[in-house]
Structures are given as structure tokens and as C-alpha cells.
Design goal:
The protein is of the alpha/beta class. The protein contains 15 helices and nine strands. 50% of the residues lie in helices and 13% in strands. Helix 11 packs across helix 15 (286-301).
């Protein structure tokens, strides 16, 4: 693709959209674009898997089509639906007018005019700006029958509608699948993709991310925020805060005109970084002060 002939170019393109990625992730994105292979991203919630699809679509100037997965999602819902109310109106109108030939009416009812396109079918349609970026988000929320259906779609980049036949993409979309690994995705699907585990960033990388997403935050406050969140990830929590929570917390602190962390401020704003009451309860009282003292000591040594 024009403008992304190198790994460095991919990293620069994503950085221009506010997404800071390391060399390993930049490499696998470059290969997915160069080889036309789907990219499968696994990792904890909030580490930036979904955001990379958004940044990629913006950087390539392509349309982003998102299929949000959920339990019970089936092939028909992901591909298309027929507009039944409009079809019924057309049938009654034809009956009132004396009735059209059955074959002619059926052909009209099952045409593009009454077809409601869902994400997978949308992604197979031609686009003047080039093939879209198709984000299949949180695939692990679905079940094995849906995964089996995706094998056809991702192998041949085509979908089948019984009433219309097979629709093949003139140009394969850029496909990104994400999983929070609440269950294992079948190997047959993974084999059709390039794979990358998106981990929590180290201190320096998270500082870069925060500088890109919350540039108005002073460096001293950013260092305290990142160091505190990184320390939290080592604690025994039900749900460790992701990068998304780091950014949200920094923005909350800026909205409160906070210039330095204190135990009181931390306790008051825990809802921005922890999403479970049991985790929040653990940081009440002296626990927040203990962690903050550790953080400030480590920053002074650094």
C-alpha cells in the first residue's frame, strides 16, 4: 500500500493518529498489509487492540467497519438481513393492485432494494477509497459455529446469500480480529491470520502513549500516573487497569486541576482506573498511600 512500504512508515503513520506501537507490533501490521492477511490480536482488555484498527483506518484513509461480537451472534446477523416490514408492504401493495406474477414479485422482494447489509457484507463491497478496514472485535465472545463460518469469509473473502448467491470482495478488506482471551479461539481460524499478543506497555512506552493522547498533562504528573498504574498491575486485582484507564485517569486529574498525586486524590478518582468494587475496596485507607510512597521513591531513584 502506498505510504506504508516499510515498518518505520507504518509506525509513523500510526503515531500520526495518536497510536504509539513498538517495533514488533509495527512489523506484524506491516506484514498484514503487505501480504493481505488478517491480523489476529490477543491481549487483556484496554491494551489498545481496538484502537489500532481505528488508527489504521484513519492513517490509510479507509472506512472502518466494525463487527462487535457477542454471545449468540450468528452468520445471518453478521452478514445481512431482509427488510421484512418493507417486503410485507410491497406484497400488500401488489395484492391491492391486482397482484404481480409470483416469480416476478419474489425476484423483486429478494433484491438489493430490500437487503440490509451488515458488517461482513459491507466489507465485501467495492469502495472508491479502497478496501475498508474490517474490525471483528472481541471474537472470543462468540461460539465455534460462528468461527467456522468466518473460515470461508476470511479464506476467500466472500459471503453467500442463498437468495442472491455468492458475493466476493473485488479487493480483500484489511481485517483485524481481537480477543480478550476469555476462551481459546480455534486453531483453524488462527492459522489464517498473522498473530500478535498485545501486552501492557513498559514505563517508557506508556509515557509516550500518554503524551500522545493527553499532551496537556505535565510530565511530572504523567510520570506519577504511569508509575502508579504500572505498580497497580503488580497487585492482586480482579481486573488490572489497561492503557485506556491510564489515559482516562490522567484526563480526570487534569479536569480536577491536580498537579501531583496524593492519597486523597487517588481514593477520590479510583473509579477511573478500577472497575470492580472489590478492587476499589482494596485501595481504601492506607493501601493507596503505601503504593504511592513506593511510586514516589522509585521515581526519585530513577
Amino acid at each position: 500500500m502506498a505510504g506504508v512500504e516499510t515498518i518505520d512508515a507504518v509506525q509513523e503513520m500510526l503515531a500520526a493518529e495518536g497510536y504509539v506501537c513498538d517495533r514488533a507490533l509495527g512489523t506484524v501490521v506491516f506484514l498484514a498489509l503487505r501480504l493481505g492477511r488478517p491480523l489476529f490480536l490477543e491481549g487483556e482488555a484496554g491494551v489498545g487492540k481496538t484502537e489500532i484498527a481505528k488508527a489504521l483506518a484513519a492513517g490509510l484513509n479507509r472506512r472502518l467497519i466494525r463487527l462487535q461480537c457477542y454471545e449468540g451472534l450468528d452468520a445471518a446477523t453478521a452478514v445481512y438481513e431482509w427488510n421484512f416490514p418493507a417486503q410485507m408492504v410491497a406484497i400488500r401493495t401488489a395484492e391491492a393492485a391486482g397482484g404481480a406474477e409470483r416469480a416476478e414479485l419474489q425476484s423483486e422482494l429478494f433484491s438489493d432494494e430490500y437487503l440490509i447489509e451488515r458488517p461482513l457484507l459491507e466489507a465485501m463491497r467495492p469502495d472508491e477509497n479502497g478496501a475498508p478496514v474490517l474490525l471483528i472485535d472481541e471474537l472470543d465472545r462468540t461460539d465455534e459455529p460462528f468461527e467456522a463460518f468466518l473460515l470461508e469469509a476470511l479464506s476467500d473473502f466472500q459471503v453467500t446469500i442463498p437468495e442472491l448467491g455468492t458475493i466476493k470482495a473485488p479487493e480483500p478488506p484489511v481485517v483485524i480480529l481481537t480477543s480478550n482471551r476469555t476462551r481459546e479461539v480455534h486453531d483453524a481460524l488462527k492459522r489464517r491470520c498473522l498473530y500478535h499478543w498485545v501486552d501492557y506497555p513498559d514505563f517508557d512506552r506508556e509515557m509516550e502513549i500518554l503524551a500522545a493522547r493527553a499532551p496537556e498533562a505535565a510530565e511530572a504528573l504523567s510520570r506519577e500516573v504511569v508509575a502508579f498504574v504500572q505498580q497497580l498491575r503488580t497487585e492482586d486485582l480482579f481486573k488490572k487497569p489497561g492503557v485506556a484507564e491510564t489515559i482516562d485517569w490522567a484526563k480526570c486529574l487534569l479536569a480536577l486541576d491536580v498537579i501531583s498525586l496524593s492519597p486523597e486524590v487517588i481514593v477520590d478518582t479510583l473509579g477511573a482506573i478500577l472497575k470492580y468494587q472489590d478492587d476499589i475496596q482494596k485501595l481504601q485507607g492506607s493501601e493507596a498511600k503505601r503504593i504511592l510512597d513506593q511510586v514516589k521513591s522509585s521515581l526519585e531513584v530513577a
